[in-house]
Amino acid sequence: MKKTTTLLFDCDNTLVLSETLAFEACADLANEILAAEGISDRYTGPALFTEFVGQNFRGMMSSLQKKYHLSLPPETFDAYVTREEDAVIAKIRASLVPCAGADSVLASLAETKHYELAVVSSSAGRRVQASVDKVGMDLYFPPDHIFSAATSLPVPTSKPDPAIYLHACKTLGKTPAECVAIEDSKNGTLSAVRAGIRTVGYIGSYEKEEQEKMRAVLSEAGAAPIMEHWKEFEGILENLEVTSH
Predict the structure, then answer these.
(1) CA dist list (Å): 127 to 83, 92, 151, 233
(2) Model confidence pLDDT, tens digit, residues 84-99
(3) Contact between 230 and 100 (Cβ < 8 Å)
């Protein structure tokens, strides 16, 4: 196996604690859509998170349409996607914080210059950029090292489709074998694993009572090893280097 040259980080709830903020905004819009279609079901942010974690809003909307047998016109669908982006970005700019320990790990990795760093996300590029800007991670991820399944591809998609990881590798001039991905969700893990990328699972953004459940979920999806805190990461990288030769 090739030496690791490139680290591909998921963004939401891997580098920054954005999912709660995002799903609050998503729930408002999802409920508006359901009401407009005469459907009585309503969602809370946590309920949406449980059902759709790891998907972007476009993917979530497609899933909701299938679940409730809806067919929104493309212009209506796109308008909701734009409104969701705007609402989430407003929340991000107001109150986003990084995942515990992520800042110091990125600073250390950037200082050593042993690896190329990139973000690979399901979320819209505008949202990812707003996230890294808000917490100062733009120091480590220039715009040409931010990849979005929603906006970087010719046809928008969402994890678990591996397309965005394959696109990132191709753009960066890397093979999947020389990359390591870091993911917190089943969909994200499946996306990276299906692209042929070794994947580290991160469960530190989950509540304590959820962590063991997510350890099993991510392991089953192909992540190995699983880490609870970013302080474990550099040791994990060293072990991956040893076991890859």
Answers:
(1) 12, 8, 10, 25
(2) 899 999 999 999 999 9
(3) yes
